[in-house]
Write a structure and sequence with these properties.
heterodimer; A: alpha/beta; six-stranded parallel beta sheet; 22 strands; B: 163 residues; five-stranded antiparallel beta sheet; four-stranded antiparallel beta sheet; 4 helices; binds flavin-adenine dinucleotide; binds thiamine diphosphate; binds magnesium ion
Chain lengths: 583, 163
């Protein structure tokens, strides 16, 4: 017998389907959220034959993408989903767009009809690359089994580097044919001449920015999701505390700076605090960090920060001066730029303990003293704010909180003071109802020991309610806090304010019995109607460590979210809660 | 303002639709777009004419640069450059009009590239404004058909849009 030569030993031959799985292993993927169908059967067969990549069978492809997204948001690793062609892919689109708007790293594998059939209106054919093009960072159609490995390498690199985002890989069925085997090796490095995200900010600009910050009399940090995406919370905290400036955050940035620290003046924007929005209106030096000047934040552009010189740190040049003209742009990763700023300061810049800053704080404390988030504590009916505060107490402010979209989302953002990044998980940019429950599943899988709460509304929860079955199958002990106001509250609020109370189709009729519904899925259901019962019930729920508990909390149907800046108004023109000292 | 933007991009299927999709999705206006492979078969070069104020053009170039397949981009309008467009125009050339067409082609330094009993095809190269002027000068009801390439551009001087 001839002795084997070395290369004959190491070269493995794999089918396309096996290569797909092998690539996922190479990328360290633990979980893949998916739903089978004709075009991905070869891949499912390859999945079946191994145990390294664990497949979570969702009940709707939207759930797969949101779960992958929640997984990614909560631990920073890319989320992965697998769906079949046609309806599988179209069902996934909402989740892909949700991740895109919030810059979440995700890789979505979609099956496609066999390549010879592409373009023939074949069974379950859609142009997935075309449909997803506007809501992905990039997408690929693999045409040759030999391209799978390099495409996966590129996809994961694109999804996680620079400004992160979802990447779709469309895989025709014939490319995964189990009978065609080729040698497999995974590229170690990938170079793309057309894609080079910036690694460092321009030092000259950074120094200019620091000088400006030191000369400021009414400075404010305005930070966003970019700080969390880049894991730059430590640098942010150090810099903000070194300078002693006030800091506000967008909805997406909450938790990057501790919400309970005295320098934190709350969220800004449409439902931001009075002190944060007033500080924006009066500031002379705005330091925007990983935030994208969204219209929920800026209000009317003409009235936005009328007196400020604006510094903006962002990795995406197209975020800079897109909506608001910026004076000192710094293109680069937040973590490295903040690190450089700290270095410049430590290298001998004097931080003036200036009178101006104390005067500024006095003004801010005065605004803060108005207690804009005050609500009726003596109400006989549960106030949604009170429910969130109770959740905060019961979980000691340390839970992961996923949310759906609506008033409950805003109450969660205002009243659960997040001290750590990646704890607050919600759809900000797309505002996707139905996000919360499946996102919670992804979070729980990423953090099996952690307490994961899902704050939701009776309208939102019904959009992905089928995932309760997934939670049962995989023992995901989420704690669902349904703030049941019987309305699409956020819609009702706008109708109350801007349509003279014509509540057109915002009443959520024919609600199911949520307790029985939860029970029918094999979970624990609770209905809570009195303020006095709330804390006890929640304690009980969280004590059930290995059960999903669905808390149907009946809250005041008429409560509104305050403060509120109408779309198109300035930061100083807020609607205040009727009980507030500011009316 | 009118801007003429040159783009080097990966010669891959789908790259063109990404550019076109970007313009429609973001509501940018696009006056013309031409694309063809370059001497390097892995690259194609696109020339795109658009209009917008400074802020919009800034966003357009940033958004184009963000497309993964875009390798390099140059706004030719930022400096001195040469711009050419080619037009082929089919004109009626029945008896009374033949002389007139010849005279016009001569003035505009065009070329007659096809002749039949009743029509001429004229080829004309130049700045877009020159082609506009030719169309205007030609008698409206003698025009059978017009096809234009959209402008191509290249920067003057030693600088080149290369990898
Ligand atoms: C019902 C509802 C109400 C809302 N009300 C409010 C409100 O009152 N206030 C509010 O703030 N939002 C509100 N939002 C959310 C809003 O729509 C936007 O999603 C949010 O304001 C955007 O946050 P952001 O600016 O932090 O941007 P993100 O979407 O988080 O964008 C992050 C930015 O950071 C950049 N970035 C990414 N990675 C890096 C890196 N490594 N280095 C540097 N930069 C990086 C990106 O390029 C981008 O510009 C609301 C949403 C809903 C659904
Ligand atoms: C998929 C989807 N459809 C519609 C909307 C518009 N929308 C925003 S909030 C909201 C109402 C949400 O109601 P509910 O879940 O009960 O929350 P509440 O505001 O009552 O707390 C609607 C319909 C949306 N954001 N997402
Ligand atoms: Mg509701």
């Amino acid at each position: 017998m001839q002795p084997l030569r070395l290369w004959e030993v190491v070269v493995v031959e794999l089918s396309g389907a096996e290569i797909v799985i092998q690539c996922l292993k190479e990328e360290g993927v633990e979980y893949i959220f998916g739903y089978p169908g004709g075009a991905v059967l070869h891949i499912y067969d390859a999945l079946f034959k191994q145990n390294d990549v664990k497949h979570i069978l969702v009940r709707h492809e939207q759930g797969a993408t949101h779960a992958a997204d929640g997984y990614a948001r909560s631990n920073g690793k890319p989320g992965v989903a697998l769906v079949t062609s046609g309806p599988g892919a179209t069902n996934a689109v909402t989740g892909i767009a949700t991740a895109y708007m919030d810059s979440i790293p995700m890789v979505v594998l979609t099956g496609q009809v066999p390549s010879p059939f592409i373009g023939s209106d074949a069974f379950q054919e859609v142009d997935t690359v075309g449909i997803t093009r506007p809501c992905v960072k990039h997408n690929f159609l693999i045409k040759d089994v030999r391209d799978i490995a390099s495409t996966f390498r590129k996809a994961f690199y694109l999804a996680t580097s620079g400004r992160p985002g979802p990447v779709v890989i469309d895989i025709p069925k014939d490319v995964t044919d189990p009978n065609i085997k080729i040698p497999f090796s995974y590229p170690k490095k990938i170079k793309m001449r057309s894609y080079n995200p910036v690694a460092k900010g321009h030092l000259g600009q950074i120094k200019k920015a620091v000088d400006l910050m030191l000369a400021a009399e009414k400075p404010v940090f305005y930070t966003g999701g970019g700080v969390i995406l880049d894991n730059a919370d430590k640098e942010l905290v150090e810099l903000v505390q070194m300078l002693g400036f006030p800091i506000t955050s967008t909805l997406m940035g909450l938790g990057a700076y501790p919400g309970t620290d005295k320098q934190f003046i709350g969220m800004l924007g449409m439902h931001g605090t009075y002190e944060a929005n007033m500080a924006m209106h009066e500031t002379d030096t705005l330091i925007a960090v990983g935030a994208r000047f969204d219209d929920r934040v800026t209000g009317q552009i003409a009235q936005f920060c009328p007196n400020a010189t604006i510094i903006h740190i962002d990795i995406d040049p197209s975020s800079i001066s897109k909506n608001v003209r910026v004076d000192i742009p710094i293109v680069g990763p937040v973590k490295s730029v903040l690190g450089d700023m700290l270095q410049v300061l430590k290298d001998g810049k004097q931080i003036p303990g200036s009178d101006a800053i104390s005067k500024w704080w006095k003004q801010i404390e005065e605004w803060r003293g108005k207690r804009c988030l005050k609500y009726d504590q003596n109400s006989g009916i549960i106030k949604p704010q009170f429910a969130v505060e109770t959740l905060y107490r019961v979980t000691k402010g340390d839970a992961f909180v996923a949310s759906d979209v609506g008033q409950h989302q805003m109450f969660a953002a205002q009243f659960y003071r997040f001290d750590k990044p990646r704890r607050w998980i919600n759809s900000g940019g797309l505002g996707t109802m139905g996000f919360g429950l499946p996102a919670g599943m992804g979070i729980q899988l990423a953090h099996p020991k952690a307490e994961v709460a899902v704050i939701t509304g009776e309208a939102s929860i019904q959009m992905c309610i089928q995932e309760l079955a997934t939670c049962k199958q995989y023992n995901l002990p989420l704690k669902i806090l349904l703030l049941n106001n019987g309305y699409m509250g956020m819609v009702r609020q706008w109708q109350e304010f801007f349509y003279d109370g014509r509540y057109s189709h915002s009443y959520v009729d024919s609600l199911p019995d949520f307790v029985k519904l939860a029970e029918s899925f094999g979970h624990v259901g609770m209905k809570i109607e009195k303020p006095g019962e709330l804390e006890g019930a929640m304690q009980e729920a969280f004590a059930m460590k290995d059960r999903l508990v669905f808390m149907d909390v009946v809250v005041d149907p008429t409560e509104n979210v305050y403060p509120m800046i109408e779309a198109g108004k300035g930061h100083h023109e807020m609607h205040m809660s009727p009980g507030s000292e500011l009316v | 303002m009118r801007h003429i933007i040159s783009i080097l991009m990966e010669n891959e299927s789908g790259a063109l639709s990404r550019v076109a999709g970007l313009f429609s999705a973001r509501g940018y206006n696009i006056e013309s777009l031409t694309v063809a492979p370059t001497e390097d078969p892995t690259l194609s070069r696109m020339t795109l004419v658009t209009r917008g104020d400074e802020a919009i053009i800034e966003q357009i170039t940033k958004q184009l640069n963000k497309l993964v397949e875009v390798v390099k981009l140059l706004d030719l309008s930022d400096g001195p450059h040469i711009e050419r467009e080619i037009m082929m125009i089919k004109l009626k050339a029945d008896n009374g009009r033949r002389e007139e067409v010849f005279r016009l082609v001569d003035i505009f330094r065009g070329k007659v590239v096809d002749v039949t009993e009743s029509t001429f095809v004229v080829e004309l190269t130049g700045k877009s404004a020159k082609l506009d002027a030719f169309i205007k000068a030609a008698n409206e009801d003698s025009i059978v058909e017009v096809v234009r390439s959209g402008p191509l551009g290249i920067a003057r001087g030693s600088k080149g849009l290369k990898l």
